[in-house]
Amino acid sequence: MPQGDILLETRSRNTRENALNTKDLLAQHPEIKSIVLVTSAFHERRALGCFRKVGLQPAVFPASFYSTDRELSLAYWLLPSDEAPRLWGVLVHEMVGYAAYWVRGYLE
Fold first, then answer.
1. Best label site of 39, 52, 73, 106, fewest CB within 10 Å?
2. Comparing C-alpha atoms, which of 42, 23, 19, 41 is closest to residue 32?
3. Is 23 exposed, middle or buried (0-12, 13-18, 19+ CB in 10 A)?
4. What does the pLDDT look like over 48-86, one tens digit per residue?
């Protein structure tokens, strides 16, 4: 994709601000008829909810999936992974973030 075809919103500090600032940025470019929201797969639900709440209907391109190849070994199923604490942190962060955004009315 040509670099000139990409608009980046760089002022936001969180997902809600990103949706609001993107809406403002797109208002300066009425020739743009469709957008793609590129975000982490685990964050897609909250991001899409924020963008829809401000009136944008992006196509979504999830990235940065967290997955592993399952093994048929007893150790794989019984021994915790060294990645588990970090992945639990990601999950809890996103769950709390989604709940907070829902309570504040930032989501559609």
1. 73
2. 23
3. middle
4. 999 999 999 999 999 988 777 778 888 878 888 888 888
